[in-house]
Every structure is written in structure tokens, then in C-alpha cells.
Amino acid sequence: MAKAAAAGHRVVLVCATRGEVGEPQEGVLDEGEALWERRVVELAESTELLGAEPPRFLGYEDSGMDGEPTNDNPACFWQADIDEATKRLVDILTEVDAGVLTIYDDHGGYGHPDHIQVHRVGLRAAQELGIEHVFEATINRTAVRQMMQSDLGDVAEDERPSIEDVESFGTEEVDLSFVVDVAAHVGQKKAAMQAHRSQIGPDSFFLQMPDEVFAMAFGQESFNVPGVSGTGGPQHVDMLPGL
User: 2-139+176-203 — its CATH code?
Assistant: First the structure.
């Protein structure tokens, strides 16, 4: 997002929910403040740091993690009517005349129901509008596995993802379509992460990484082309096709 914005492209972030049922960091919220109220403010700060426009919302509620009772909330995104959700996204994409769309991969990176629904709704909207350049943001599972074998400095053991978790993350490198070099923007990325104070505390796994490990983890971004696998490895590009 930061790299595209720096290159002069209009960058618009669309969020399905406002993160209503997340677990806030202790002591961050004011008395009587709802989590979603704080997250909207944090998100606006984060997008500004990245050079993107203020976020747009589809208007659904957070579904929570897979298997939680909140998955059954009729107002949550996981329970949304796909046709209606697609129409809401189509309206936004039409308004901004989107030429490139990024969504999550088909398992939402790590199985989050709302991320999976973003994949489904995003694909439908792109098909309806005939958007040619659609990419699935994913996690390079092979690289994460290698990173976990690196020196993670002061990151506490209980803050680190387990090997078992990693095996369900993202996509193996051999199936990736593109890797984009964003090393010049890792400072912006870290600042944008820090803006989400209600979600990412100063002692979090991500913010405790040594700078060189953070750069290794976040200096590249991985993408799939929908329906394409077995690529033999990604093309390393400066920018996604269409930008």
C-alpha cells in the first residue's frame, strides 16, 4: 500500500468490519469506550501513515476467530448474504474506478472467517466488474519457517508462533505467484502496526523482533493469482502487475 501510494497510485482500503470482538490490550480503552470506536481511529491513523485514503467499511460486524460463538451472529460478516456483500463492495470499487484489487487467499491467511469471506466476496466483485488484476495477499509459509530458525532476540517463547501454527499459515513458496520488494517501506509498515495500539502492544511478537528480523519478515509481500498454484516459485517484482 505504501509503495503504491508513493508511486502516485490512489490506494483505497476497504474493511468488512470494525473489529468489534477482538481482545483489546489492557489499559488502552477509555472508560465506556467500545473497541470498535478505538479501532476506527487507529485504522485511520495507520492508513494515513501508509499514504492511503481513509478506510471504507462494508458495514458488517466482526465474526471473531474460527469456532467462536460470535461466528453465529447474524450481523457478522461470516453470516453475510454473499450477493448483498458483493453489491456493497462493487459500489465502492465502481466509485473509485479500481483497476487492481487485492484480497486474502482462500483460507484467509490463517483461517479467520472474515478473511475467508473477504476472499469470496472480493472474487465475486472482481468478476462482476471485470477487474483483470486480482491478487491474493498471503504469507510465504516457507520464509516464515526459515525466520523462526533465526535469532529472534528478546521475543519471549510464549509470544512466538508454534511450528504447528506455521504449517497452516499462508502458502508454500513453490505455489506463490509474486513477491513484491517493500524493504524501503518497512519503517512505515512498523509505524502503521504501532498505530493499532488496541491490538498490538509494545511487547508483541512483531514489535519485539530485532530490526533485521523485522525487515526479513516484512520486507517482502507475497501474492497468489486466484486459481494458480504450482508455479515453481514466485516472480520477484518491483510492483504488482497493473500498477
Answer: 3.40.50.10320
